[in-house]
Automatic annotation (TrEMBL):
One of its GO terms (molecular function) is protein serine/threonine kinase activity. This is Protein kinase domain-containing protein. Pfam families: Pkinase (PF00069). The keyword ATP-binding applies. Keywords: ATP-binding, Kinase, Nucleotide-binding, Serine/threonine-protein kinase, Transferase. PROSITE patterns: PROTEIN_KINASE_DOM, PROTEIN_KINASE_ST. The keyword Transferase applies. InterPro entries: Kinase-like_dom_sf, Prot_kinase_dom, Ser/Thr_kinase_AS. Residues 1-185 form the Protein kinase domain.
């Protein structure tokens, strides 16, 4: 069996060096801690003076954004499958006290069997339980929870907001309860 990995290089910008170092270390720490079938696996990590290298699973299926752009509509079975796996991955992260904070189709990869894997933990936050809040304005604006946008402090519920927005923006909600055929004729 031939194993293929992806090398992700995180450079350190001179303008935002401290923030970038903190985010790079946080991403590495989270990936080292997490072991879940629907989250990309970190195999190795090493660094040079100016860069951090992460050796991750290589997923031949590409990302969900690309698949969405190539297909007019997903089947109801596909939608249920992706949403279930995504919900399990988010629940696992939240159980470890991690807020993901950047849920979007570009960060959802597909393996060769069609299973999802969440990737890109650069905006994630560790050590957040149900009562503690994070205050960073980060993520992709279209998917951000109102409390993130308004900078009122957010919890893990911000990820569930993004989950719902993903479902609505990609029109996945049309399949819930089998209403797609009624709406699309």
């Amino acid at each position: 069996m031939f194993i293929t990995w992806l090398l992700r290089v995180l450079g350190r910008s001179t303008t935002h060096a401290v923030r970038d170092r903190v985010r790079s270390k946080m991403e590495r720490d989270i990936l080292a801690e997490v072991n879940h079938p629907f989250i990309v696996k970190l195999h190795y990590a090493f660094q040079t003076e100016g860069k951090l290298y992460l050796i991750l699973d290589f997923l031949r299926g590409g990302d969900l954004f690309t698949r969405l752009s190539k297909e007019v509509m997903f089947t109801e079975e596909d939608v249920k499958f992706y949403l279930a796996e995504l919900a399990l991955a988010l629940d696992h992260l939240h159980g470890l006290g991690i807020i993901y904070r950047d849920l979007k189709p570009e960060n959802i990869l597909l393996d060769e069997e069609g299973h999802i894997k969440i990737t890109d933990f650069g905006l994630s936050k560790e050590a957040i339980d149900h009562d503690k809040r994070a205050y960073s304005f980060c993520g992709t604006i279209e998917y951000m929870a109102p409390e993130v946008v308004n900078r009122r402090g957010h919890t893990q519920s911000a990820d569930w907001w993004s989950f719902g927005v993903l479902m609505v923006m990609e029109k996945w909600y049309l399949f819930v309860g089998g209403v797609a055929s009624e709406l699309w004729g």
